[in-house]
Amino acid sequence: MEKTPLLLLPGLLCDENLWSHQISTLADIADISVADLTRDDTIEAMAARTLSEAPETFALAGLSMGGYVAQEILRQAPMRVQRLALLDTSALPDGDEQRKRRTGFINLTLEGKFRGVTKRLLPLLIHQDRLEDEDLTGTIMSMAENIGEEAFIRQQHTIMSRKDGFDVLSRVTCPAVVICGAQDNLTPPEQHQAMVDAIPGAILVVIEDCGHLSPLERPYAVSAAMRYWLQVPKT
Questions:
Q1: Could you give the C-alpha distances from 103 to 92, 94, 154, 163, in angstroms and in order?
Q2: Which domain, by its residues, includes 51?
């Protein structure tokens, strides 16, 4: 069976370890690559670089910031995206309060106070019942350390530069799935329902007892949903 090229887009302060379960369990049906989203500071540049390094056509899955990049890829090269998965993300641009908070994080980092993902921030990212899972929390904190402060600043600028994505989502014609944790505190389920309503024929998968980092928190559920999505016949 010919494998589907699958391009995975990590979130803020995340790397390929975010997708470790999907990379291992979907390898039988997908030729998987993970984009490096650490080198640019605008959403347009991040999407353009990703496209320059991607296969000619591909299935595309992005989490959080990766979902924002996925929407910009749809804006720049819609015909190259053969399947779309959006995880724990939003089609809305940043509001004033979000931009203010991100600017504060950037300023703290410039002052040498970058702490990556600390235990204080973990409740925003994962379900409360997983806060004592040392393997999970260790992976999250080590990913942030690997990304580092300079890339963190670039990523925050990128997120603040994103546009409203509903215009491009309404034009999607490929098989699409939207996945989120039921207890996602950063991008709650109602934002995912809005994306499903915008994408013709999209499927919504809400994973219980799960926060914002669903591929890590509930890897079997996410991998199962993505396997189904990768095998849905194209219309």
A1: 18, 12, 12, 18
A2: 4-94+157-231
